[in-house]
From TrEMBL:
Taxonomic placement: Bacteria, Pseudomonadati, Pseudomonadota, Alphaproteobacteria, Rhodobacterales
Keyword Transmembrane helix tagged: yes
Segments traversing the membrane: 6-24, 31-48, 54-78, 133-154, 185-207, 219-246, 266-286
Keyword S-adenosyl-L-methionine: no
Protein name: Amino acid/amide ABC transporter membrane protein 2, HAAT family
Subcellular localization: Cell membrane
Keywords recorded for this protein, A-Z: Cell membrane, Membrane, Transmembrane, Transmembrane helix
Gene Ontology CC: one annotated term: plasma membrane
GO-annotated molecular function: branched-chain amino acid transmembrane transporter activity
Amino acid sequence: MEAYLLNLGVLVSIYAILAVTLNFIMGYAGIFSLAHAVFFGVGAYVGAQVGMHFSASLIVTIPAAMAVSAVLSLMLALPALRVRGEYFVAASLGLQMLAVTVFSEWKGMTGGIGGLIGIPAVRMFGEDIYRPAAFFPLAAGAAILVLIVTRLLVRSSLGRSLTAIRDSESAAESFGKNVALIKTISVVVSAALAAVAGVLYANYLSFINVESFTLDTSVLVMAMVIIGGTGTALGPIVGAALLLLLPGMLSYLWFLPQTQIGAIQQIIYGLGMAVLMIFRPGGLVGRSGARRRTRKAGGGK
């Protein structure tokens, strides 16, 4: 049981990084992307290749993965210069479909459908870090660090510019904000930080294939952000924990057919998002935060 819980802890930490980085552009810039799994995959494949052929040290693999992901994110950022709203969602969906094809067919880099095996474990202090008990502190620490970085960015002038653009691009432009540049920077930062999750994922499992980086993963991460609460610090983490713990909880319900757990899980995701949009549009964390802000503004307790 302990190993199972530690394994869940590692996966929650990795997906929390993805949710936090997606929230950076969704919650604060108003950019809804369906291609976040692309940068998760880029980080995983680059980290795996660097680890297998050069060094498995995170000091080497993480910067390399972040750099490649940041450069490739310009494929998503460039449409952001010209379109907004649902058009950007369509552009990100196109990139997601393209990336899945590349991941599946570029066998020299990704191993194709069969994936990459034999990815070396992270080596720290002279020991390989692969057991859940040892890897969990590493993954949780990375998630906390990414959260801190995004919070600092949100509180900076860049973050204030992002929220201004989210509320009204026209108003932001009238105040002299370079909307195209700011949106591009936000997408690049989000993609680079998402690559950190990919590196950890590859090192932890020692095996990756395209199935982990499809549209389903992008939708799952978006659901984590929406259910937890967009534009909040802890909302994406709460959403990641809830949606990853849900399959385990369903498996303990004896009256549910085990072969249908996946379908039931998807139904619960959809119903949960629909109910939240109706009754708690700010998410599990966002609405309570909004209430506190309202009370403070009104001088209430």
